[in-house]
């Protein structure tokens, strides 16, 4: 029986090929009923991945809605797929690029994973701080010490590029602030509106990358030497905060150029 691969599965395969990661697609395992999407032989260990792609909801929301339940649902679906693979490292890969109603932004996915209530720093309300976000989570979570501990990480598979206009605007505000000017909320939107007729310039257009969000409660940690591409990121626990642990070589270069890319756009 031939399986039609989804856009996200094909995208992930392209990523694997580019990084020379050897993989198997939906391999049969003797004695097991479930077949997660991908198997990676990692040294003497096995890493299993389940890929979930978001589609537009039906019907479309007409009022404010909670973005977390669809992600929590995908986590639960992955839990069922991994039920027979608890002796292996397992990861859930999420991808969304067709609907604005299905959000896989960093803070949204983390909130679904680790708690709907969070404290995020820097807030950048009355002072802009160019630093990686630092999170602390509270409340109900889809991943905890006694729930879904087989999922070692949630991986956000993204289409990514650098919008140079956004970078210029953010750097202009940082420079104004360094000269003593108070930056009011919404200043970036105002500058973007003033420059809306400028041609769009992007760096690294249509790049595919992975952002790995470690599950601190996993009974088998997700390998840290996987998903280490030049544009990738890895997030996890550092002290009391959940924050950026590592980023790829090209992201470091973007931070070091004459017009550095702010962390919020990496």
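^ Assign residues to that structure.
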């Amino acid at each position: 029986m031939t399986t039609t691969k989804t856009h996200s599965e094909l995208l992930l395969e392209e990523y694997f090929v580019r990084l020379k990661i050897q993989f198997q697609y939906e391999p049969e395992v003797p004695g097991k009923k479930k077949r997660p999407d991908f198997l990676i032989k990692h040294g003497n260990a096995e890493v299993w991945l389940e890929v979930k792609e978001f589609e537009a909801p039906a019907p479309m929301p007409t009022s404010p809605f909670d973005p977390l339940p669809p992600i929590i649902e995908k986590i639960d679906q992955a839990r069922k797929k991994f039920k027979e693979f608890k002796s292996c490292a397992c990861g859930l890969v999420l991808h969304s690029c067709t609907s604005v109603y299905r959000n896989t932004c960093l803070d949204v996915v983390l909130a679904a994973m680790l708690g709907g209530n969070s404290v995020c720093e820097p807030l950048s309300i009355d002072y802009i701080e160019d630093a990686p976000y630092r999170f602390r989570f509270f409340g109900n979570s889809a991943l905890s010490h006694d729930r879904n501990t087989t999922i070692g990480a949630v991986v956000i598979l993204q289409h990514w590029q650098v919008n140079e206009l956004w970078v210029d605007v953010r750097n202009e505000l940082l420079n104004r602030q360094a000269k003593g000017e108070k930056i009011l909320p919404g200043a970036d939107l105002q500058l973007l509106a003033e420059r809306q007729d400028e041609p769009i310039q992007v760096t690294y257009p249509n790049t595919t990358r992975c952002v790995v969000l470690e599950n601190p409660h996993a009974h088998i940690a997700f390998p840290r030497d996987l998903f280490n591409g030049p544009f990738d990121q890895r997030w996890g626990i550092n002290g009391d905060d959940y924050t950026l642990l590592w980023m790829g070589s090209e992201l470091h270069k973007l931070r070091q150029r004459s017009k550095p890319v702010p962390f919020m756009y990496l």
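The first helix runs from residue 7 to 18.
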